[in-house]
What does this fold into?
Amino acid sequence: MTDAPSAALPRAVLFDLDGTLVDSAPGIAEVINHVLVPLGCPPLALAAVREMIGDGAPRLLERALAAHALALPPAEEDILLTRYLALLEASPPGPACLFPGATEVVSALAAEGVALGLCTNKPVAATRSALRALRLDDRFGVVLGGDSLSRRKPDPEPLLAALAELGRTVEGAVMIGDSTADIDAARAAGMASIAVRYGYSRKPVDGLGADLVIDRLSDLAGALRRLRFQRNR
It folds into this structure.
């Protein structure tokens, strides 16, 4: 591995997880349905669950309950959330769930000396479980989940904290994600962003405000080289 990335590449790349590197929606749908079906709820369709992903586990459970017109006391909702999180951590997605090119692009950037971080709204325990199952647990210099800090995306705090741990600044960094939360967090942090079209965004991806949009991960290296980064940080 080189000590510093090529001048054409950023010094740091932060990735989202669900909908960006891994197609986790089928597994998440299975887990949330497992939690809710005992309450008499019919299984949620995969398409419905896809639109619930991206803002953290508490928000996903809230949306799932709303889809069934269920209003539970806070204590009961907390019990469901605890059960959901335990099942999510115990049922990570395997390598077959990675989007095409995910392993290759992450490995190639690391080999070029780019500092890599993962910033997701998924709980950090489930995130680390997923990375181990995906065989990506040794690729990232920092991993932050939705419960790692006091704030989660779209707040810029996770991105700024990740860059600080990597020893990088926003001028030489880019965020890769599929949702409003990812792109808004990057904008608030003052860093560049690239959105992917194949993820779980509830809004048209071309309208998220990313610097660039790509159709597949194999396009990422070329997209990164099209962006300009300050190399003196």
